[in-house]
Amino acid sequence: MSKVLSARDAVAKIESGAIVTVSSSSALGCPDFVLRALGDRFDEEQLPRDLTTIHPIAAGDMYGVKGVDYIAKDGLLTRILGGSYPSGPSNKPMPEIWKMIVENRVAAYNVPSGVLFDMTREAAANRPGVLTKVGMETFVDPRREGCAMNEKGAEAPIVKRVEFDGDDWLHFPNIVPSVAIIRGTTADEFGNITYENEGAYLGALEQAICVKNHGGLVIAQVSRVTKRGSLRPHDVRVPGHLVDCVVVDPDQKQTCETQYDPAISGQIIRPWDSFALAEHDIEKVIARRAAKELRPGMTANLGFGISAKVPRILLEEGHPEAVTWAIEQGAVGGMPLTDFAFGCASNADAFVPSPQQFIFFQGGGFDVSFLSFLEIDVQGNVNVSKLAKKPYLTAGCGGFVDIVSGARKIVFSGWFEAGAQVEMTDQGINIKAPGKFSKIVQEVEHVTFSGNRARTLGQEVLYITERCVMRLTETGLEAFEIMPGIDPDRDIVAASGGRVTIAENAEPMSADLFATGTMGWPA
């Protein structure tokens, strides 16, 4: 008997009060068709009501795949836990889910993506929740916000500090989902799911196991259906006994900007010269300096923003495969993509399910992580997860907190000042006019990375900007490399309000960073 249903009939099985876990990463793997049907059902019937939704990585974005915004409705959604949320530029309208959060109409939490996957695993096995050090001394810690994004979230805590075996830990009690909404490419009539056109597996298998272990409902969205027995067993990522309903959307997008690109799903290998190089500008100079922290044979993690340009630096240098990149959505190797195809990679060596990728990250098995920042404070704390004035400019923490918790070395990249008039020459940087504000602040708005904990753990931490390279020391931020053309006293110390000191042995950053040709990596 076929399990194929219309989206309307599938979501009619979701009961009021359900806890719904959704497999997605922005538009990547987003079961958008089913989420829209769920929102439409509520508009027509005012059912189901009072849902909790769990999104280990964001569902939807601001660029054509609405995702969670379809269900961001009063009465339908009462609680949401997300590793990240839809984000985009300030010239676009605020997503409905963000309006609900900032207006305190839904209890909302920003939970590290890896921890949410850990919670899925622990609930599946009926263990007593997650015991972890991920997020200690950050906004995740109940001594700060405890993941809560608003007053309603703070009123119902989801994490506490506990003592175990003589040490302090964070404990996330189980939140057991009763519904999973996942997505793949092909389903057979029994519900076996393959992922041949997807850019990642994400956590669909773990989410389906968790829900079925507790007698719940699993809905799988796919683009096509085939006869039972026609799928290779090795290709099936979610077996049919875990799937209750199959919904077909032949038009589902691969990413928000891509209907289908076989290089994203590893079905073809692109020539290296088909990838665009980084534009020759100041952000490229920052990315080049970050690339100097790499050596052939390393495994490196990569985040959004300026850091995402680092693989393109190695490509330009003629070494696109010298470093193995590992990103949280699961791609290993290849060329990580940029902009809003971020989270995908072309020419990948492998796709690892996100929950397993986060085990690798939390355990610190990689050599270095390249991440970006919104602001840094005098303690070396970094905020990437909250801007109260424009909350949807940031997606939240995503996998950032999981990654930095285990990293041996972290390289942050970003701008020292916002809005400064900066001119680049072949000799260095000229600050023509100061910015609106420094990104080096007295205290960050949200502690996504704890400088104090990094010192305790002995992590090596660098902050690379258009003016200098800083390192985290016992006393704060110290600039030990100065960009050519920069006046250290005026453009660094004074511009930061004295929050950055200059090392006695500070040296100029290498002039090869400004070369219009290659810079000669590895040095």
Layout of secondary structure:
Layout: H1 7-11, E1 19-22, H2 32-45, E2 51-55, E3 77-82, H3 96-102, E4 107-110, H4 113-124, E5 130-132, H5 151-155, E6 160-164, E7 167-172, E8 179-183, E9 186-188, E10 193-194, H6 204-213, E11 217-222, E12 224-226, E13 236-238, E14 245-248, H7 282-291, E15 299-302, H8 310-316, E16 324-326, E17 331-332, E18 335-336, E19 345-346, E20 350-351, H9 354-362, E21 368-372, E22 375-377, E23 382-383, H10 400-406, E24 409-413, E25 417-418, E26 421-424, E27 429-433, E28 437-438, E29 440-441, H11 451-457, E30 460-464, E31 468-473, E32 476-482, H12 488-494, E33 500-508
Parallel strand pairs: 1-2, 1-8, 2-3, 3-4, 8-11, 9-12, 11-14, 15-16, 15-21, 21-24, 22-29, 24-30, 32-33
Antiparallel strand pairs: 5-7, 6-7, 9-10, 10-13, 17-20, 18-19, 22-23, 25-28, 26-27, 30-31, 31-32
Helix pairs in contact: 4-6, 4-9, 7-8
The averaged pLDDT comes out at 95
Give the count of helical stretches: 12
> The biggest beta sheet, please?
8 strands, mixed
Strand content bin: 25-35%
Assembly type of the chains comes to single chain
**Strand order of the biggest β-sheet:** 16-15-21-24-30-31-32-33
Number of strands: 33
What's the helical proportion of residues?
10-25%
CA distance, first residue to last residue: 63 Å
Any idea what the shape is?
Answer: globular
- Structural class by sheet pairing and helices: alpha/beta
Radius of gyration: 23 Å
Poorly predicted ranges: none
